[in-house]
Specification:
This protein is about 60% helix and about 5% strand. It is mainly alpha-helical. It has a domain of about 160 residues: Farnesyl Diphosphate Synthase, CATH 1.10.600. The strands form two sheets. It has a two-stranded antiparallel sheet. The chain has a two-stranded antiparallel sheet with strand order 3-4. It is globular and about 50 Å long. It starts with a helix and ends in a 14-residue tail after the last helix. Its EC number is 4.2.3.-.
Length: about 500
């Protein structure tokens, strides 16, 4: 990797402005680089205050749950409970709505270590349970029907439909993936929302394409595409050493007799692109999916500060590298055998990190100060992002089990791993996954209760919290409607 770093840093030109000011946040912070902890500093913060707020929050939940238990099941009840922390947000409430209200007494928010009792699906083993969500249902963004088509048309302009093949493209379109962002993003600028629809369509296409047998059965095809996406990412963010270091695992997957040639070609191509400024980036001969990513990131990275660019680059790279890991596992028939070792991988492979990262777009549109890197690496901020990813992952695996595991034999699914690890039935594994889902929500809210942010960043951090809650609520709703996982397209009803 030394040669790669030298080749890239030899280029000229800076892309983006690095925000270097270190600002105070009331938590213990650390700054990591090159795998080492450079320094640690302790800042004034009374954790007892956050703990007290969380206890008060839980007490309020308990009181309101008892109130809800006295309401009739068919009554449309909404009880809002204020969040007690200093993160300023108009969404500082959680709520029980409709059917959820009648069930709320068995779904009180508990501490992260608790294991709530959740009902076991009795009708059939493949039934995916409904959850009692504690967040306000905003419904479907009315723009999504129009933007679903716009996102598909945009991919066609990059010839992605040809790369996917007729059957692959047809299956992708039937899943209506852009509707996912329609379930999540509300009150956002029209231009931002269209970008989000394009982005989720791109992620879904990349996932579908690399899942094709003729692609993953040839490691060179997978690596070739992934490296092209990394050229685009590194053009904007090559100053970040982690992005370069993480590519070692990709090059290690290349046969020894080909590795040097692939490595040299990659480094030379990227160095040329950087020394030639934007014209060099545009001159790169890329596959359709990588070309589409190039257009997306040009719009994104030229608009936002460098810290935001690196954050998104890391999230996209995390997702892309899990594709390489999946391909390697399939070819070697070596799979995860325990939930513990699967959890970190699934946090990245679910592809939710980039969707949370899109919050930086909305913050920019509101002209709020962006969250700098030193604030974002706060333990609680990172943990609430990860908890959101895991919650969506466990719901995804329950929703996709029938189609992806039973029909296609895919083993990258927590239900399958629980069954193998514990020797239990599918019903028992589903019940365990439901507990895991609820525990992630508990973990998320615990971290939110512990947030203590400097005033100038409260709005931005609150926006991250709001988007995470909408993701935890909205993506599972999409799982139950999309033909990607269901036999019917519920969006056509």
């Amino acid at each position: 990797m030394i040669g790669l770093v030298s080749s890239i840093y030899g280029g000229s030109g800076d892309h983006g402005i690095c925000i270097g000011s270190i600002l105070s946040i009331s938590c213990d912070l650390f700054v990591c680089g090159l795998g080492k902890v450079f320094f640690t500093r302790s800042l004034p913060f009374t954790y007892a205050m956050a703990a007290k707020a969380h206890r008060s929050f839980s007490k309020l939940m308990s009181v309101n749950s008892r109130f809800l238990s006295r309401k009739s099941e068919g009554q449309n009840v909404a009880v809002k409970v204020p969040m007690q922390n200093n993160v300023a947000s108009k969404d500082r409430v959680v709520a029980f709505y409709g059917r959820a209200a009648s069930q709320a007494r068995s779904h009180q928010i508990q501490s992260a270590a608790s294991s709530p009792q959740l009902p076991v699906p009795q009708k059939e083993e493949n039934q995916v349970p409904d959850f009692t969500h504690l967040y306000e249902d905003r419904g479907l963004n009315p723009l999504i029907a129009e933007f679903n088509e716009k996102a598909h048309d945009w991919l066609v302009t990059h010839d992605v439909h040809t790369q996917m093949g007729p059957e692959g493209w047809k299956e992708f379109k039937s899943g209506r993936t852009p509707y996912l962002v329609g379930e999540v993003y509300h009150d956002v600028d029209r231009k931002d929302f269209l970008w989000c629809a394009k982005f989720i369509a791109w992620i879904s296409c990349l996932d579908d394409f690399c899942d094709k047998l003729e692609i993953w059965s040839d490691m060179n095809k997978t690596i070739g595409l992934i490296l092209e996406t990394q050229k685009v990412i590194l053009w904007f963010c090559s100053e970040d050493p982690r992005l370069l270091r993480n590519l070692e695992m990709v090059f290690d997957c290349i046969p020894t007799d080909q590795r040097d040639d692939v490595f040299s070609a990659f480094a030379d191509s990227l160095a040329y692109a950087r020394t030639s400024s934007r014209a060099g980036l545009m001159s790169l001969d890329l596959q359709p999916l990588a070309s589409a990513l190039r257009e997306l990131l040009i719009e994104y990275c030229e608009r936002l500060p460098y810290d935001c660019n690196v954050r998104m680059a890391q999230y996209i790279q995390n997702y892309a590298l899990t594709i390489v890991t999946e391909t390697k596992s399939r070819l070697s028939a070596e799979y995860h055998t325990s939930v513990a070792e699967f959890t970190d991988f699934r946090t990245r492979s679910i592809g939710v990190q980039p969707l949370i990262g899109l919050t930086d777009l909305f913050i920019d549109s509101r002209r709020w100060p962006q969250i700098p890197k030193d604030v974002f690496v706060d333990t609680n901020v990172q943990a609430l992002v990860d908890a959101s990813c895991r919650a969506v992952a466990w719901d995804n695996d329950m929703s996709s089990f029938s189609k992806e595991v039973q029909e296609r034999g895919d083993r990258f699914n927590v239900i399958f791993i629980i069954m193998e690890e514990c020797g239990c039935s599918q019903i028992e594994a589903m019940n365990r996954a439901k507990e895991m889902f609820q525990n992630e929500i508990n973990e998320f809210e615990t971290r939110v209760a512990n947030l203590k942010v400097e005033p100038q960043y409260q709005n931005a951090v609150a926006e991250y919290v709001r988007i995470c809650r909408l993701i935890i609520l909205g993506i599972p709703r999409w799982h139950r409607k999309s033909q990607r996982y269901q036999k019917e397209d519920h969006y056509l009803r």
